[in-house]
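Assess this one:

_____
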Amino acid sequence: MTLLQAYLNNPHTRRTLDKKPGQTGFSLIELVVVIAVLAVLTAIALPNFLGVSDDASARAGQQAAVTAFKECQVFKARGQTRLPTSVMQPPSVSSFAVGAPTTPSYAGAATMASAGQPVLGSIELNCFTAGGGDRQIYAAPTEAGKFPTFHITIAGIRQCVQGNITLHPNTYNIGCTATGSWN
């Protein structure tokens, strides 16, 4: 028996040579089932992924208000309650304007956000009034109603007003509870 005959008589070689063309791979039915399963998984998961960046923007606005409040408290602790020493750059957050409007209300915050400026048309955040009193900090969405408006009172109490669900059915009221506080 020659080496070639021994190779051809090997059971593994026989199985390989006995296969007909087209016997390997997936059938059309198997491919259709896999594509259908992937389509269902995509339909379920896609809405969750689309809201991730907006949820992150809402949390960033919330955190920016906290950061601005803490910075103002540092100024206060250092005795810097007068202009210009109590002026700082506001936190830069997309989708939110962070500042201490001269009209301490949600309407004042909306005006601040619609102008795209933090305070008094400037690019600076003044933590204190001209007399040295504290100002309230707001993080207002630049697109009205899409996100909640976050507010920190002079006493450090965190409050928020939910976004407009009628205008924006996919409003991202992350961090805003039914009672108007943060969670």
